[in-house]
C-alpha cells in the first residue's frame, strides 16, 4: 500500500487549542505523526496510506482558518512515524523574541523565483536551520549561520545586518515555518527578505532536477532521518548525523522515533 508523508503549517488564531488537539486526534486516526497546536496556529507532519492522508487533509481544510492549506507530499517506503502525537504548545515554533508573529509578511517567493535568486550575485542565500542540518545538505552558495538552536538565529542576523543592506536575503528552512517568524523580524531590521515558499521540501517537490541547486541531503524530523533531492530516504543514520557529543540529546530524540521493537 503506497505511503505518503505530508507536512504543513498554518498561522491562524485557534480559540481553544486543547479542544482542537482533541479533534485532531480523532480526525487523524490511522496516521502516524507529530502535530503541534497553539493559539497562533498549527504545525504538523503526518504519514500513512495515501487515501487516509488525503481524507485527513480534506477534513482539516474544512475547519475555520484552514481552507486552502498547502500540504507538501513525498512518497515513503516505510512509515516515518511509530505513533501519532498531538501536543498543545505556547508557540508552534519558538523564535526567542517576544511579540514576533508568523503573520504573512509578503516576502514569500515561489520555488521558481527562488531558483532565479540563487543565480543572482546580489543575493545572500541564508540557511535558517541549525548547523547539523546545514552540514548534511544545503542550497548552492548558502551561508551557514552556525547556530545550534533556532533561538540563536537573531544574533547572527544582527551581526551581519549592515553588510546585507541593499541585497536580497533569500532565506529557507525545511518546510517554511521557521522563516515565517524570522522574515517579519528581519523586515523590521530594514532587510529585504525573500523566503522560499514551502521550504526545501516544497522546492524538491517542485523540480525533478532539484539536485542542480540542492547539494547533499535534507534532514527530516522522523524515522527516515534524511531524504535526497528526489525526496527518497537515503539510508543515512542518526548516528552519522549526530556524531558531535554536544548533539547527544538530539541523537537520543532521533532514536526514540524508531524504537527497536
- CATH class categorisation of the largest domain: Alpha Beta
Low-confidence spans: pLDDT under 50, at least 5 residues?
Answer: none
Instruction: Tell the overall outline.
Output: globular
Secondary-structure-based class equals: alpha/beta
Question: What percentage of residues falls in helices of 4 or more residues?
Answer: 25-40%
CATH arch. level architecture of the largest domain = 3-Layer(aba) Sandwich
Q: Look up the CATH topology of the largest domain.
A: Oxidized Rhodanese, domain 1
Instruction: Give the percentage of residues in beta strands.
Output: 15-25%
- Structure summary, number of beta strands: 13
Cα-atom radius of gyration = 18 Å
The CATH superfamily label of the largest domain reads: Rhodanese-like domain
Total domain units: 2
End-to-end Cα distance, whole Å, is 22 Å
User: What composes the largest sheet?
Assistant: 5 strands, mixed
| Sheet with the most strands: spatial strand order | 4-1-3-2-5
